[in-house]
Design goal:
Number of strands: 10
Oligomer: single chain
CATH architecture of the largest domain: 2-Layer Sandwich
CATH class of the largest domain: Alpha Beta
Structural class: alpha+beta
Order of helices and strands: EHEEHEEHHEHEHEEE
Length: 266
């Protein structure tokens, strides 16, 4: 797009100066063009006719199609008590990634367990879906919180998958949002011998990590009755008493799921 302004003066230089002042171009705009629209004319006999010089100053710039989105986020941040922030938007195919930089005020934007950031992301997604048709996924990040959170969740999934694989007990994680559950499921898919599924509904939906069907725990799990008679003695292959039935795998809690996540403040 082009932004332009016109200035007038008794001379070309005066008109140019007026045009530049009216244009008020940002400091980062270096390529401001000047076009003389009208030359100055002197009055006849110093009394009649004559006209001022007229000059146009202009520059070309790329329109920020996400300006309304940025303004919307800025208003939300201001209501959270954040007066200074920088918002950048990057797009790739049908994905929109929005990064917020706001000094040391990351905590109020992230909220407990990232709930505030997720809520803002949801609202921003609604705005973008209303304004544009070509985008299907919106990600809102502050500092490097999302990257830190993803690394934490992957580590959590691997740690508890190892527990399931070793002891044969199901592990039920704490409730997560769809984005976080997807990270857990994706990580589990790459680990041999275990699988995962979700239970519950709405805000109470959790991921359950279990052994794959037909896979036995590495430490023998519930085979502790193997080789013993019902009375507890060794059968040595001589007793016909059947072994005690194996118990169903017990479900364990994953323990503390959410630790403190530090974000970069660069």
């Amino acid at each position: 797009m082009i932004k332009e302004a016109v200035g007038t003066g008794n001379t070309i230089d005066e008109a140019k100066e007026a045009a530049l002042k009216n244009l008020n171009a940002p400091e980062e705009i270096e390529d401001v063009k000047i076009e003389v629209l009208e030359m100055p004319k002197k009055k006849t006999l110093g009394l009649f006719g004559g006209s001022l010089a007229k000059v146009k100053a202009y520059y070309e710039y790329d329109e920020d199609k996400f300006a309304k989105v940025k303004d919307y986020i800025t208003v939300i941040l201001e209501n959270l008590g954040i007066d200074k922030s920088e918002i950048t938007v990057n797009t790739e195919d049908k994905d929109v990634r929005i990064d917020i930089s706001c000094g040391d005020d990351y905590g109020s934007v992230i909220g407990r367990r990232g709930e505030t950031l997720d809520a803002i992301q949801y609202l921003v997604r609604l705005v973008i879906n209303r304004e544009f048709d070509e985008y299907s996924h919106v990600s809102l990040n502050v500092g490097n919180y999302r990257e830190k959170r993803e690394a934490t969740l992957k580590s959590l999934a691997k740690k508890n998958a190892a527990r399931v694989r070793k002891y044969g007990r199901n592990v039920v994680l704490e409730p997560m949002n769809p984005y976080e559950r997807r990270i857990i499921h994706t990580t589990i898919q790459g680990i041999e011998g275990v699988t995962s599924h979700s239970v519950g509904s709405d805000d109470d939906r959790k991921v359950v990590i279990t052994l794959e069907e037909g896979v036995k725990p590495l430490n023998g799990g519930n085979d502790r009755y193997k080789g013993r008679s019902r009375s507890g003695g060794r059968n040595g292959g001589k007793s016909s008493s059947p072994a005690a039935p194996a118990r169903e795998p017990r479900s364990d809690s994953a323990g503390v799921l959410y630790g403190k996540i530090e974000v970069n403040k660069d």
